[in-house]
Amino acid sequence: MRPAFLFGVSRMNAALNDVAAALAEPVDTALDAKAYDEETSREHALEHCNRKFAALKADQRVEWALENLPGHHVLTSSFGAQAAVSLHLVTQVSPNIPVLLIDTGYLFPETYRFIDELTAHMKLNLKVFRAQRSPAWQEARHGQRWNQGLEGLEAYNQENKVEPMRRALRELEVGTWFAGIRRNQAESRKAIPYLEWAGGRWKVHPIAEWTDRDVHRYLTKHNLPYHPLWEKGYVSIGDHHSTKALHEVGTLEETRFNGLKRECGIHEINLADL
User: Fold this and answer.
1) CATH 3.40.30.10 describes domain 72-268
2) pLDDT band of 253, cuts 50, 70, 90
3) Alpha helix segments (H runs only) across the chain
4) 160: closest CA among 135, 183, 123?
5) Does the active-site annotation cover 264?
6) Closest among 101, 68, 71 to 86, alpha carbons compared
7) In the predicted model, is pLDDT for residue 127 greater than 50?
8) Active-site hit among 264, 266, 269, 271
9) What is the per-residue pLDDT across 151-201, written as a single tens digit (0 to 9) for each?
10) Domain ranges of the chain
11) Structure confidence at residue 157 (pLDDT)
């Protein structure tokens, strides 16, 4: 009996060939049955689809993923500097898609107002998840962990960002996760693919290859705003206690987490281990 994943591979290849018919390429089906196991199937499918996705427009990637990848579908957003792009791009195709926000309780006041503005303007189906302990309780017990070196920072991120996101993905039974991260945002993101798969769950990065110029063009074309702190030099915006404007530091990497690290851990979650 063929592994269940193979049926997804066949469906995926067929759908992508329909979307990008002019770019269709034959898929080698003459693989040894024993070698064509679950891992080989996954790698083959991902390689094939990432090649196809590279030739598609961002909205086509979104449309195809919504039609062919398993539900439930969700979009995550930090409501950061250029967040309006992904929010608009995905909700134009799926207006009621749940938009997941992880609220640490330490976002900038401008961010909370930006969330309200975009939620009202785009009629977003916003779902907010938080740590199980309040910020005040955490500080009473641990102090300001973001000022306690890398170990303290990672413990803070784990409780306030990673655990709530993992819980959200479980509770909403997410099959496909859309995220607006891009390769030129950080060294840690230079190699992100359009599609990831693990444990039966998918992650889609529709604008992975976009530059800041692409983002600006999209925002301008659709009359969408940057985060209000963008004009003050904030190019990557998270918690107020660990975010700095670019002119305050030497490199883009140093604008977050006092330069100790770049990723909070949300986009490093193993989808196979929720």
Assistant:
1) no
2) confident
3) 4-19, 38-54, 58-68, 84-91, 109-122, 135-142, 149-157, 163-171, 212-221
4) 135
5) yes
6) 101
7) yes
8) 264
9) 999 999 999 999 999 999 999 999 999 999 898 887 777 889 999 998 889
10) 1-56, 72-268
11) 97
